Amino acid sequence: MVPILKYGEDDMSRVFSRTQLDNSEYISAVDAIISDVRARGDEALFEYALKFDRQVIDGGSILVSKEEIDAAYKSVDAKLVESIRKAKASILAYHSRQKDKFVNEFFPSGNDGKSKLGWIYRPLSRVGLYVPGGKASYPSTVLMTALPAKAAGVGEIIVATPNINNPAILVACNECGIDRIYKVGGAQAIAAMAYGTQSVPRVDLIAGPGNVFVTLAKKQVFGHVAIDMIAGPSEILVIADETADPVLLASDLLSQAEHDELAASILVTTSERIAQEVDRELARQTALLSRREIIEKSLTNNGAIILAKNMDEAIAIADRVAPEHLEVCAKDADKIALKLSNAGAIFVGNYSPEPLGDYFAGPSHVLPTSGSARYSSVLSVDTFMKKISYIEYDKDDLMSIGDDVIRLAESEGFTAHANTIKLRKKELKG
């Protein structure tokens, strides 16, 4: 069902050439929407809500009301609400442990230790989360973005979503303690949170996935506001040896292929038998799944099974791909995992399938894609914290290095910089 490729012999371009998609054709449209929202505020938001989302909203109805949230609870199965609450507890517990490392620290400096250097951590004051509509109607996105922000201690969390007809999203927002939910979507929602309107406050950071218009809008407003990342299509790479179960391997690959036609599902194995059996299993299981058409296109365009000579070569392949999700289904999986360098999240062993991370385990499922795991990280408490340098010198220490500061400043032509030290030296000399 997918090509079986031998590493070092066959063309690997379908595996190694995945980059951010070329969305240049949409840039002008996104720029126009951002400019319009920036200029006209709420008026533009209301017009775009009608045009793109077929929603009639105004200043009195742009916010989701308590009555709408109450109605959502009545229409969501009680067992789903219970599962949302269990997932919340797991995710919040994981990220609360991360918060423990953000400790203000100070250490003595200077000749006699009278000066002090260090750092101070502060959570962001207000963040905006985007929860998409359309194919990507995920209550889990609320949990996986809001709870790390909650653990970080963010002062205010708002959500923008066009998908208010999904009651599970409203329930998830309420369970996570979202302060305000706005009925806006698309590039216009990103612009509103980045610049502020009469109804939507400006935020410090925007997080969450979205379609091409949302992604380009986040890229465009970066600098006016922080963003979590620029996310591309979903990806999974599974490393397997001869001990793995081909039925389970195929199911894990299909869990990502069903996201959309652009998703990539890759198996890297040291066993030719496993490669052949997984290929057959992919065809068998796909025929039984509800999103068969999407899966077939995804596997045809982006799927691959790669035969590696040994586990070291498999690790090298995985690190070169730098996948969003990386499963290790092999003997000594935990030891192999610690040799890997590039991945958004690593799932270790036969009983850690990728959907466990999507919904429940604890770490956020908002992960770097398109090879960006080479240099970026999963959304976490870190995303919502900032680190401030702390510098406190006493007069003796400043004077002891004053001439060095003056010399460096003057070498760059900054006489005003140098003068701050000269004046203090003059004052101290009386």
Condensed summary:
The protein has 17 helices and 14 strands. The protein is of the alpha/beta class. It has a 6-stranded parallel sheet, sandwiched between helices.
Keywords for this entry:
17 helices; 6-stranded parallel β-sheet; globular; alpha/beta; 430 residues
Q: Order the strands across the largest sheet as they lie in space.
A: 1-11-10-9-12-13
Principal-axes geometry comes out as globular
Measure the end-to-end span.
85 Å
Tally of individual helices: 17
Reported for the largest beta sheet, the result is:
6 strands, parallel
Mean pLDDT: 95
Give the uncertain stretches in residue-range form: none
Query: From the alpha-carbon coordinates, what is the Rg to the nearest angstrom?
Result: 26 Å
Provide the helix percentage.
40-55%
Number of strands: 14
Which strand-content bin applies to the residues?
Answer: 15-25%
Secondary-structure map:
Blueprint: E1 4-6, H1 13-16, H2 27-40, H3 42-53, H4 66-75, H5 78-99, E2 105-109, E3 115-123, E4 126-130, H6 139-152, E5 156-160, H7 167-175, E6 180-182, H8 186-195, E7 205-207, H9 212-221, E8 226-227, E9 235-240, H10 246-257, E10 264-269, H11 272-286, H12 292-302, E11 304-307, H13 311-321, E12 325-329, H14 333-337, E13 345-348, H15 354-359, E14 385-392, H16 395-411, H17 415-429
Parallel strand pairs: 1-11, 4-5, 4-7, 5-6, 7-8, 9-10, 9-12, 10-11, 12-13
Antiparallel strand pairs: 2-3, 3-14
Helix pairs in contact: 2-3, 2-8, 2-9, 3-8, 4-7, 5-6, 5-7, 6-7, 8-9, 10-11, 16-17
